[in-house]
Hints:
Alpha-Beta Plaits, 4 strands, 7 helices, alpha+beta
Amino acid sequence: MTNRTLTIIKPDAFGAGKAGKIIAHLEQGGFKVVAARVMRLTTAQAGEFYAVHKGRPFYGELVEFMTSGDCMPMILEKANAVLALRDAIGATDPAEAAAGTVRKLYAESKGRNAIHASDSDENAARESRFFFSETDCIRG
Length: 140
Ligand code: CMP
């Protein structure tokens, strides 16, 4: 288990001005931002990032949504970061997310669900490299 993971504040939350609140919530939960950027994903970038979901019925909708506005990828640091962040953001569908989680507080729906988090250490490393180079990150 490593102490870094990748998150994205998605276009619904970023566009609605919720990024500051979400970052504050995560910092309160013990996460440290070690890299951050604001960008608009191209269709090719979103398609590649979510390639694992290619063929799923929601893939087209997911790529369209992720390219619909600016988003904020970040690398976060905390002990056991991948599991800790998945706990902090809650279930994919905000209707099923636990009280006090980011998705319960800030997500609109299963598709427009405010935030992404890597689901394994391997994917955290791959997804971090997708957005950042080593020189973009605070040294551990
Ligand atoms: P995320 O954690 O970014 O990883 C994959 C995303 O696919 C997920 O969040 C949701 O936003 C999206 N997703 C998963 N299931 C559905 C669905 N049934 N309908 C729409 N989007 C979905």
